[in-house]
Amino acid sequence: MNIKRILTAVTAMLALATLAAAHAATPVSFCTNWFAEPSHGGFYEAKAEGLYAKAGLDATIKMGGPQVNGMQLLLAGQCTFLMADSIGTLKALHAGAPVVAVATTYQKDPQVIIAHAGVKSLADLKGKPIEVSAEGMNNYWPWLKRKFGFTDSQARPYTFTIAPFLHDKSLSQQGYVTSEPYMIEQAGEKPKVFLLADYGYPNYSEVIVARADYVKKHPQVVAAFVRASAQGWRDYLCNPKPANKLIVEANPKMTSGLLAYGWKTIRAHDLVTGGAAAKLGIGTMTAARWQAIDNFMVNDAHMLPADFDYKKGYTLKFVKNLHVMARSCPAA
């Protein structure tokens, strides 16, 4: 037996094992806020195209739902990143949760109020019944009360179905511009849709949130996830097919019609590429916008005390030099 050859072989094997370990992908998980849908398209696109893998990440996307508390999962370590919103993030921080927003998906919150044909403005809905979720009562509803004089007495529990809306012609409801209007149209009615962001609602939607300790310990992982996600959105807006395949696999109830409608609507309203993203790139956030959100939460909604340090709830470190710009895509 040649000891020298054996030692050489063992050394080579150890070197290969060390090299493989050095290049092993970092496992991360991303908890979304709902079942897989077009509103999550860019993240599924990044997964489908291998953008996360190229960034050194073994990324898993975990669907949310009406009974899923994503913030609890994040704090319990069940997900590395969470899809949340700016208002919810600051409220969680104020409650003692050590969380920080590192990027955003939407420059415009896709939240809408949907009314029946004939309603001309949001102001026309004052005193009329509107279905609002528990989360909505704590987020956009105080803004509607302040801006349009709505009252809690007109709010009705949102049942996450369009059936009550179709049955009651006096009823309006909340929704996402990318989904519920399409469902109502498919049921035979052309609704009136009010995108709250167009009326000044300042919330950042689909913010990428992480635990503050994780951001501090693993900045390279955070940066890699943010960049790959932004690239996924850039590509999804031009070609949604790779993402759509994974979305349907995760959520078999998703239809091709809703996938197409959601994609077109995201583009039509510049939800991802408008605002600051037009100049600074997809995923960007600004200090001025966060200040406006804090001002709304303190002065309009009375959700936060005036002395709350909202700046601890976000960081621009991972987006200030991101510059993932939208491409010129074929017409939708």
TrEMBL record:
Q: Which GO terms describe its biological process?
A: thiamine biosynthetic process
Instruction: Report whether Signal shows up as a keyword of the record.
Output: yes
Presence of keyword Signal: yes
Tell me which UniProt keywords the record has, alphabetically. Signal
Against SUPFAM superfamilies, the record matches this protein to: Periplasmic binding protein-like II
Q: List the InterPro entries.
A: NMT1/THI5, SsuA/THI5
Q: Which first-to-last residue range defines the signal peptide?
A: 1-24
UniProt domain SsuA/THI5-like: residue ranges: 38-242
- Source organism, top-level taxon: Bacteria
Question: By its UniProt entry, which Pfam families does this protein fall under?
Answer: NMT1
For this entry, the protein name equals Nitrate ABC transporter substrate-binding protein
| Source organism of the structure | Acidihalobacter ferrooxydans
